[in-house]
Design brief:
It is built from 19 helices and 28 strands. The chain is of the alpha+beta class. The strands form five sheets. Strands 1, 2, 3, 4, 5, 6 and 7 form a seven-stranded mixed beta sheet that branches. Strands 19, 20, 21, 22, 25 and 26 form a six-stranded mixed beta sheet that branches. The longest helix is centred in the middle third of the chain and has 38 residues, at 440-477.
Length: 709
């Protein structure tokens, strides 16, 4: 199916028509269109077909880095298809939290000539095939081409289609005319209540029987959602059944108690234009199961949104992560455009800015560093723990007349105390570009979110503190510089692991025993903990001492260090490589204790050094460590490293060593510091369970030009 384009400059309505046309072609009942936002960092939900806005509240804005099928489709330049809710939840668990229903989804990229415009998606029933048919794929591809053509045409005419502030919602099929009166006459005698809801969940048709069963006049139902018009349907379970029908496109049934004692059965039948509802009285007594108390619960959509954000906040590690995630996930969801997070500086009794996104700079200058006893809305929330909601700038100035008057800038304000362990630790401030009404439910949601943010912030601050403490301890245990020896260049790098506590047991050192003799050592203590780091410091000190005593003999140094570790009765083991290099002769003597083999890159070719291996240090006090002797010619590089450089899940160690050796061969000839950077570069890009130490040694001839080492 090739969708023809209209020659007028297309807008959102025309794009919606194009997308709506493909739904029956691929057996879908709903869909949506994401367009690239002007800031190019997010995708904005611009069109929704067959589903209400609230259903995708958590996904109105997508960060380009978010793990969602829309982003994967754009990144992979192909359709992402998941035939059921189970497969979708397996691969994208955060989506399953907010849409826990059984449905199929296809995500189609809008990409042409390397330019990304966005993507669209379709929802279908969950019993679709595991693989899309060739016909369905062709229809999806043709629609993508047509949408891209329309977007490009609009841009070329100087009227680009921009994402709206809220997604445009349309029915999945054109409204049929002329049927209302005949249908009304036909259903009037039917005793069961019949009504219709549009895709936004609002009553569009209510028969006399339905109004009688629901206990409210038709005019007080039309245009309202059931859970808003009827207090006894405000339990999240009932709205969730409606959401399930919309998404899964399968009939749904539930029973509810209309106070004081009338039980009603609701049968929901989803269609292209919304939901048809059949209401019948039932004699089944389900008291204690479906009855409601006097509370007014939060709506299902809001609960799913809180679950989504709670799940997202668990991914935040540092304070910066928390700020980024709140800005990415919460701002678009609540319609705010400014965010600032402040912490209470208890020692100096002031507010300190932790991070902001899109916040009014004039307000920041006034608040950052403000004393906590200043009478202002943000400091008031920080000290009292009471939130502040101001619908407009005028309302804010009426309550706090001392706040500087500014006719421009933010209009609506939500000032949320961040409470952890029973006391305020800071404030989250959300600002809105227009006056904003904060309903009771929206206030409850924002207060719940502020609690989640506070907990995430406390975890992040604790992590940051531990990380700085660990880095300080690690820095104190590792050498700050290497000896500058004529005829020998050296370079070293250390990268901490990115998971768990940011401290490990990797160590390295280099000691000059004379103007032409140098020793080098590298090792790795088992584990990532303060105990591992402490033992690492002791081993490094012992190796240095025995190096001096035994004139750098590798076998003796390792044997005596091993005996010392056994006497310490530590529960931890350590691996190690120790060598002695005589620059005058170019001879190297090396011993190894359970450590990865060094790599040698020489003008004649590189190789993995076959150094005889000995037991790990700390196992057998009588262990011996054989010594290998070999020549290290000028302009060759000897690489000592810890296992973090080569160990990645699913990778064969021998293959990984050859890959690192290939990298070393490729960059040999560059200044040694640049060689070290190239070798470590691939490890910087991804998560690392282990830390990495790297020590490079390069002998040079006297006639060679001095190089940076």
């Amino acid at each position: 199916m090739k969708v023809s384009t209209n020659r007028r400059t297309p807008g959102l309505d025309h794009l919606a028509d194009t997308l709506r046309a493909v739904l029956p072609e691929v057996g879908a009942h709903a869909g949506g269109l994401y367009l690239r936002a002007p800031d190019d960092t997010t995708l904005a939900l611009s069109v929704l077909i067959g589903v209400p806005r609230d259903l995708l509240l958590s996904w109105t804005r997508l960060a380009r880095s978010a793990k969602v099928p829309i982003n994967d489709a754009i990144r992979e330049r192909q359709v992402v298809w998941r035939p059921s809710g189970a497969t979708l939840g397996r691969d994208y668990p955060r989506i399953a939290i907010t849409l826990p229903y059984d449905f199929s989804v296809a995500c189609v990229p809008l990409v042409s000539d390397g330019e990304e415009y966005g993507a669209y998606f379709t929802f279908g029933v969950a019993d679709d095939p595991a693989e899309l048919s060739a016909r369905a794929r062709a229809a999806l591809a043709d629609t993508a081409d047509s949408i891209v053509d329309q977007l490009r045409e609009a841009r070329d005419r100087g009227r680009p289609v921009r994402p709206p502030s809220r997604p445009r919602v349309v029915n999945a099929a054109e409204d049929e005319q002329g049927e209302q009166d005949p249908i009304a006459r036909m259903v009037r005698p039917i005793r069961e209540g019949l009504c219709a809801l549009d895709v936004d969940g609002r009553f569009t048709t209510v028969t006399d029987a339905a109004a009688d069963l629901l206990g409210k006049p038709r005019e007080r139902l039309m245009g309202y959602r059931p859970w808003n018009a009827l207090p006894w349907l405000r339990d999240p379970v009932f709205e969730d059944r409606y959401r399930a029908a919309i998404i899964s496109h399968q009939p749904v049934q539930f029973t509810a108690l209309r106070p004081p004692d009338r039980w009603l059965s609701f049968h929901l039948y989803p269609g292209d234009n919304g939901i048809s509802v059949v209401i019948t009285p039932t004699d089944v007594d389900r008291r204690g199961k479906a009855g409601l108390g006097r509370r007014t619960p939060t709506r299902a959509g809001e609960l799913y949104h809180i679950l989504h954000l709670s799940s997202a906040l668990t991914e935040a590690v540092t304070v910066g992560d928390v700020v980024d995630l709140v800005a990415r996930e919460i701002l678009p969801a609540v319609g705010a455009n400014g965010l600032a997070l402040f912490r209470k500086d208890r020692r100096q009794q002031r507010l300190r800015l932790l991070g902001e996104r899109g916040f009014d700079q004039a307000v920041l200058e006034h608040v950052d560093g403000a004393p906590l006893d200043r009478r202002a809305p943000i400091t008031q929330a920080a000290t009292s723990g009471v939130p502040g909601f101001f619908r407009s700038r005028l309302e804010l100035e009426l309550v706090y007349p001392e706040v500087p008057h500014r006719p421009t800038g933010p209009q609506g304000w939500a000032i949320l105390p961040l409470v952890a362990s029973g006391s305020p630790i800071g404030v989250c401030v959300l600002t809105f570009p227009e006056p904003h009404v904060f309903t009771v439910q929206r206030r409850a949601v924002l207060n719940s979110l502020s609690s989640l943010i506070a907990q995430a912030l406390e975890r992040a601050r604790l992590y940051d503190f531990k990380m700085h403490l660990a880095q300080g301890l690690q820095s104190g245990l590792l050498p700050h510089s290497m000896p500058d020896l004529p005829g020998l260049h050296s370079a070293y790098r250390y990268l901490p692991g990115t998971e768990g506590m940011d401290i490990g047991g990797d160590f390295y050192d280099q000691v000059a025993l004379g103007p032409t003799v140098s020793t080098a050592v590298i090792g790795d203590v088992q584990g990532h903990s303060v105990s591992a780091a402490a033992l690492m410091g002791q081993l490094r000190t012992a190796a240095l001492a025995y190096t001096t005593v035994f004139d750098g003999d590798p076998g003796q140094v390792l044997a005596h260090t091993n005996r010392l570790l056994c006497l310490m009765e530590s529960e931890l083991f350590a691996s190690c490589v120790h060598l002695r290099l005589d620059m005058a002769t170019g001879r190297v003597r090396m011993a190894r204790a359970g450590h990865p083999e060094p790599l040698l890159s020489a003008p004649g070719g590189g190789r993995v050094m076959d150094v005889p291996d000995g037991l790990l240090l700390g196992i057998d006090p009588e262990a011996e460590y054989p010594v290998l002797e070999f020549d290290l010619p000028p302009r060759s590089i000897l690489a000592l490293y810890t296992d973090g450089l080569i160990e990645t899940p699913g990778t064969d160690l021998d293959v990984a060593k050859r890959e690192v050796l290939g990298c070393l061969d490729a960059v040999r000839g560059l200044p040694l510091d640049e060689v070290a950077e190239e070798m470590i570069a691939r490890a910087r890009s991804g998560p690392r369970e282990d830390d990495i130490a790297l020590l490079l040694l390069e002998p040079v001839s006297p006639e060679d030009e001095p190089r940076e080492g």
